[in-house]
Design brief:
Length: 92
């Protein structure tokens, strides 16, 4: 898989996740996305910076604001993975 195909697939996964309503638990999708991101990093298809840019852009497409501007109380519907909490990349 090349970098462009990888980014397109990850964006599609993120869009599906972000469009779910807060009351809908997205556990399966979240784990799939985390694994997909980790695979991209390990195979060196993308960097942390690539992932962060894609997450930020996709978040903006769905919510119309940056992640940082969005109310953090919306996090109750998604658990934040440890590698993200440790500031490797911002939450999805």
């Amino acid at each position: 898989m090349n970098k462009q195909a990888y980014k397109q697939r990850l964006e599609a996964l993120l869009l599906d996740l972000y469009r779910k309503k807060a009351e809908q638990k997205a556990t399966t999708e979240r784990f799939q996305i985390e694994g997909f991101m980790e695979a991209g990093l390990l195979s060196e298809v993308v960097s942390n910076a690539d992932l962060q840019e894609l997450i930020d852009n996709t978040h903006f497409k769905v919510f119309g604001i940056s992640y940082n501007a969005r109310n953090l109380s919306d996090r109750e519907w998604i658990d934040i993975p440890a590698y993200i909490r440790e500031k490797v990349i911002k939450p999805i």
